[in-house]
Amino acid sequence: MMALTGARPRRFSGRLNPPAAAWVVLLLFCVFALAVPRFASAGNLENLLRVGSILGIAACGQTIVLILGGIEFSFGASAALASVVTVLALPSAGVAGGFAAGAASVLLVGLVNGTLVARFSLPPFLVTLGMLMVAGGGAAVLAGGLPIDAPPSDAFSWPARGRVAGIPVPILAAAASFALLHLLLAHTRAGRLWYLVGANGTAARLSGITVWRSVLAGYLLAGAFCALAAVILTSRVASGQPGLAPNLPFETIAACAVGGIPLAGGQGRAVQTLCGVLVIAMLNNAVVLLNLPVAYQQLMIAAVILGAVILQRAPLLLLLLPVRPARQLEEDRS
Amino acid sequence: MSARFLRRSADGLRIAGSVLPVPFRVAPLCLILAVAVFAATAPRFLSLGNAANIGAQVWVLALLAIGQMFVLATRGFDISVGAVAALSSVCAAMACNAWGLPGLAAGALAGLLCGLVNGALVGTLGLQPVVATLGSLIAVRGLSLLITGDGQVVPLDAAGAVTRLGFEPMPVLPAASWAALVLAVGAALLVGRSLAGRRILMAGSNPEAVALVGVDTRRVQLWAYGLCGLFAGLAGVLMTVRAGSGLPTEGAGMELQAIAAAVIGGTALSGGIASVAAVVTGAAFIQVLLTGLNLQGVSPFVAQIAIGVVIIASGLLETLLRSLPSFPSQSRTRT
């Protein structure tokens, strides 16, 4: 029941209801702005958003899968596969064709994941781990184990470095992705079905919903978000790399969890994912600016991820912040 | 009364007796099939040397998989085991340099500590297992880099004496393999015969019911993750013994193989079913697959694809077996 009330779609007219993670974003921003030199400059913030947009777009896909009660580990490997396929297809298919081929390979991975989860009822974690190895191994076989360079061209670098009306393309793409995700989740039938299927698949089936179609659509759409992220990533690194972005699935899961989306399914909003992505992006940016040794970078990232998640689990600690626990908000609304 | 009930209901989960429960048949079948195929196609596969080689190599993966099994059985998940093994390997090497051979135990201790931290995050604080162990994966990697000065291998002063433990056959197996075998038997006894093991399986198969009969599921989770960390630490010690040095960056990717071995070994991802013997067989299958493909001159990337396919196929097989009419009664209750 809790799950269903939490999943109730918002209306635009309703009062703005920031997730608890928004306070974490604000706090972290203030701390970094004060403590990290050059953090709050316009150039750095643009760079931060540009780098974070790839994580954000992929996290949109992860959000759908998590709402469905699943989990997606194959994002990084399929992005690597896409980059290799793109670069291999460049000479014969041209820039647009190459990107299309790369995106198609990600969609194919998403289709396999969705089919195995939806039609054969396999555990999502098992399927996507298996596909992680298949796609990662496939990328390495295709590339012969080594990165392959792409011939540099303006068209090829446009998805990562181009600008439309002065705004970098990746940031626009991420904004569009989050807008699309919000519309899907809050204002469409498909989105509402995802919440129902994720909260209680049996109840969804008994009330006459074709559950497998909803799940398959979710995984395919997650693949589409990942494909967009992969195109931008490939364009940015300008090469086909079989070892590209091994941490992408974990970072997207961490972003969703930091945003407060439970991994049990049935709950989650686009704005929560956005907050989580901002936290991770600011963190990654700050550790680079601080120029810490890798060991300290990793310890700091781990501390903030765990700290942000623990803060949301332990309401007593939240008393330190001017925000009410999530459960109280639920009661206010009902 | 309740203790009697527990004992009887858990009997069906044990693989002792004449009937081997269906999910535990997958790993032996896969192993026999793989050995048969490679014996027929790879020329040097069926030699005594190769068998001894696989027999000694398999234990790092087997220990990781046994640890993972405890966590999977509680419906949990630990992606930090590879990093924990690497940290434990470094700790074992450093302690061994300082205090001699008994110092190797420091590796196991480090693993146990990491596991208990995971357990506290998941059990006591109620974090999602993926997020908690992801956090500790990153932190533990950072720690390994920190104490080794950016990931340099820690050479053992007594490398000769230590590697002799790992390679020189005592009676039949090297001392390290005997030790791992004893640990596996200990884990099997823990799962099949002890109250703690029973609680771990119960907490996975029905947490609400277990809480209702007065078991603190959070504490069960704490110790399941602790055991997982302990076995990851022991795997790290084994890595140090075999390599003759502490390996701070080793073990990346091992967590996936360990999960694969545990799943092929019939550990139900919905929790509640586990067998150490089947998990070790699953680890042996993966090792045979890797070694066999290697002997055939196949690229390691293709082997990676093969393992991915095997993971998914093992899931499909389990679904297939579950749909057989006899399966539910055999797995959940005594027939």
TrEMBL record, chain A:
UniProt keyword terms in alphabetical order: Cell inner membrane, Cell membrane, Membrane, Transmembrane, Transmembrane helix, Transport
Membrane spanning stretches: 51-68, 99-118, 125-146, 166-186, 218-237, 244-264, 270-292, 299-321
Q: Which domain of life is it from?
A: Bacteria
What coarse category fits the chief subcellular location reported for this protein?
membrane
Q: Where in the cell is it found?
A: Cell membrane
Keyword check for Secreted = no
Q: What is the membrane topology listed in the Swiss-Prot or TrEMBL record?
A: Multi-pass membrane protein
| Name of the protein this chain belongs to | ABC transporter permease
UniProtKB/TrEMBL annotation, chain B:
The UniProt entry, under InterPro entries, shows: ABC_transp_permease (IPR001851)
Alphabetic keyword roster = Cell membrane, Membrane, Transmembrane, Transmembrane helix
- Looking at the UniProt entry, the stretches that span the membrane are 20-42, 54-72, 79-100, 106-123, 130-147, 172-192, 222-239, 259-286, 298-317
Q: Does the keyword Protein transport apply?
A: no
State the annotated membrane topology for this chain: Multi-pass membrane protein
Q: Which domain of life is it from?
A: Bacteria
> Where found?
Cell membrane
Stated name of the protein: ABC transporter permease
